[in-house]
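hey can u check if this looks right to u? its 323 residues, i copy pasted from the old doc so theres a chance i mangled smth
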Amino acid sequence: MLNRREFLVTTAAAAVATAFPFTAAMAQDAPQLQIFVPANPGGGWDQTARAMEQVMRAEKLISGAQITNVGGAGGTVGLPQFINQWKGRPNALMVGGMVMVGAIIANKSANNLGEVTPIARLTGEFEALVVPAASPFQTAQDFVAALKADPAKVPVAGGSAGGSDHILFGLIAKTVGVPATSLSYVPFAGGGEALAALLGNQVAAGISGYGEFAEQVKAGGLRLLAISADKRQEGIDAPTMKESGIDVELFNWRGVFAPPGVTDADKAAMVALVGKMAESAAWATECKNRNWTSILLTGDDYAKFLAEDTARIETILKDLGLA
């Protein structure tokens, strides 16, 4: 129990923290942070938020973080709450990413990421194109040749319709001149179901994050044809899509946003805070342990990337008949 003096001191400190912007709090050794996750606990965005809190605390950049989860519809349920109820908060961040961009477009959401304040793109997970071990496709070019010959005979397993796996398949098709509407895409709710379909030779190929397939690739149950990263990845014996003659690069990226209505000074302070975290050895270790690729991009550069990626995703979702 607090005595009267402790109560008054605590109350006064809280009032100061509320009254002064985050730029003032940044001058202190350990500001507080609020992180909004427009998804349920346990998923990728939630993991990102909790990893951020852990690293920022370890680096003494913050004293702690309060994490709020509001899940549903690829982030489009929580986004309006962040925009309307968190507006102007100088010490707040929302985690989001490529999945939210697609969900906003596909769901024709009333709100979009143009209404929040881009702070930093943090991590990305590249996708993998795999086939069953018994497949006649030895290379990504074999896959493309079959796709060009008759896309209906090349069913591809992946995650939900309109998600990153489906988007990558659409981009591959568009790049090699195959109409996206002719594709045979088989969506599964979970990676385990897609994996079972591949191992049972029920589909010709599969697309998902490399981590979903890594064990079966190493065990010889699946053959990895190509990855969607920008360069070859250490420890993974596979070419990139571009090396394979498919001019496509895609990361299922995650990043953070401040609410609308923050000052330029508070935005700059938040960019600096997240930048320090992302450049720390502790964050590099966290990314390595979680198989995340660091693709840091901050401030205005991140805003430019977001606009370009949104346009690209909107185009391919329209091609797929999903927007």
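The first strand starts at residue 32 and ends at 37.
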